């Protein structure tokens, strides 16, 4: 952190002190930071070699064909395409993307804390996933110390389920289940009902605000980094024959008070289902 930096315990790049602190920051990623502050996401070129892209695709294919492959819970699958988790435990190529230097550097600059990769999800094809904010899945105290890097290993466009985002939505109010006056769920089954209520709420919010949804057409090796509360999803797949090899990594940050699972928390009652960041951390 720079001398004189007026530091509240909130992510610099999302804070009201963003403009104030600019003068104390190095110029290196300033243009990215301005875009992230305004729109809630940036696209960066990771300059991954063709060879590494191909190797990662090969490894993801091997994972998908392996027996007992670990996936996200059923409720987060919107088609039969697998969302493969923990691939970093098996393949160096996947782990390397979790720790990609450019992503880590950029996030340090944005958040003024050390980023900690906490998971990897690999995709072969699009997800058809409705708009949501990742903060409904991973939360922190202080708030908003969460972001994701979604990496295209091949081209994404209108037809193979590119990522869609709602620019500026990272500034919307934070949503948690207690706002819907729902009881704290005790099982995945209960949570899945509540999650549908949440998704329905987001869809109504989008309609009522008449806001624009932007499709991010990425080149192989480009990544989109999105902020904690940014609404995003997977565009409906048009061409079912197309693949969409990709990886998303979520990051929390070092030296927060705690991180928690908002799914099994009740924020209005001050009850937090704590997560152990040391255990989540990808070493
Ligand atoms: O890959 C997609 O289509 C969406 C993935 C996503 O939103 C996530 O895993 O947080
Ligand atoms: Fe997401």
Would you mind describing this structure in some detail?
There is one protein chain. The chain is of the alpha+beta class. The chain has one domain (about 10-275): q2cbj1_9rhob like domain (Jelly Rolls). The chain contains seven helices and 13 strands. It has helices at about 20, 30-40, 50-65, 90-100, 100-110, 190-210, 275-280; strands spanning about 40-45, 85, 115, 120-125, 140, 145-150, 165, 215, 220-225, 230-235, 245-255, 260, 275. The strands form three sheets. Strands 1, 2, 3, 4, 6, 9 and 11 form a seven-stranded antiparallel sheet that branches. Strands 5-12-13 form a three-stranded antiparallel sheet. A three-stranded antiparallel sheet has the order 8-7-10, with no helix packed on it. The radius of gyration is 18 Å and the shape is globular. It binds 2-oxoglutaric acid and fe (ii) ion.
Q: Could you give a quick summary of the protein structure above?
A:
The protein has 283 residues and is α+β, with helices and mostly antiparallel strands. Helix content is 26%, strand content 18%.
Keywords:
single chain, Jelly Rolls, about 20% strand, 7 helices, 3-stranded antiparallel beta sheet, about 280 residues, binds 2-oxoglutaric acid, binds fe (ii) ion, alpha+beta
List the helices and strands and how they pair.
Layout lengths: L17 H4 L8 H10 L1 E5 L4 H16 L17 E3 L6 H7 L2 H11 L3 E3 L3 E3 L15 E3 L5 E6 L10 E3 L22 H22 L4 E3 L5 E6 L4 E3 L11 E8 L4 E3 L13 E2 L1 H4 L3
Antiparallel strand pairs: 1-9, 2-4, 3-11, 4-11, 5-12, 6-9, 6-11, 7-8, 7-10, 12-13
Bound molecules: 2-oxoglutaric acid (AKG) and fe (ii) ion.
The site of fe (ii) ion has 3 residues, from loops.
């Amino acid at each position: 952190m720079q001398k004189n930096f007026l530091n509240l315990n909130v992510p610099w790049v999302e804070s009201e002190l963003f403009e104030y602190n600019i003068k104390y920051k190095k110029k290196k990623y300033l243009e990215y930071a301005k875009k992230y502050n305004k729109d809630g996401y940036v696209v960066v070129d990771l300059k991954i070699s063709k060879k590494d892209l191909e190797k990662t695709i090969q490894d993801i294919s091997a994972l998908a064909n392996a027996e007992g492959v670990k996936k996200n819970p059923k409720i987060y699958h919107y088609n039969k395409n697998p969302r493969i988790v923990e691939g970093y435990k098996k393949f160096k190529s996947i782990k390397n993307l979790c720790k990609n230097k450019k992503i880590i550097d950029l996030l340090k600059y944005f958040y003024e804390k050390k980023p900690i990769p906490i998971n990897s999800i690999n995709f072969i094809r699009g997800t058809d996933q409705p708009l949501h904010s990742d903060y409904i899945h991973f939360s922190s105290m202080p708030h908003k110390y969460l972001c994701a890097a979604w990496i295209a290993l091949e081209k994404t466009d209108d037809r193979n389920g590119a990522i869609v985002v709602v620019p500026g939505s990272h500034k919307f109010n934070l949503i948690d289940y207690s706002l819907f006056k729902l009881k704290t769920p005790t099982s995945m089954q209960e949570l899945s009902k509540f999650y549908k209520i949440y998704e329905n709420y987001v869809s109504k919010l989008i309609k009522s605000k008449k806001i624009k949804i932007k499709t991010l057409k990425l080149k192989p090796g480009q990544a989109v980094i999105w902020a904690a509360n940014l609404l995003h999803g997977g565009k409906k797949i048009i061409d079912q024959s197309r693949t969409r090899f990709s990886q998303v990594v979520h990051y929390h940050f070092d030296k927060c008070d705690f991180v928690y699972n908002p799914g099994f928390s009740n924020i209005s009652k001050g009850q937090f289902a704590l997560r152990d960041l040391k255990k989540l951390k990808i070493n």
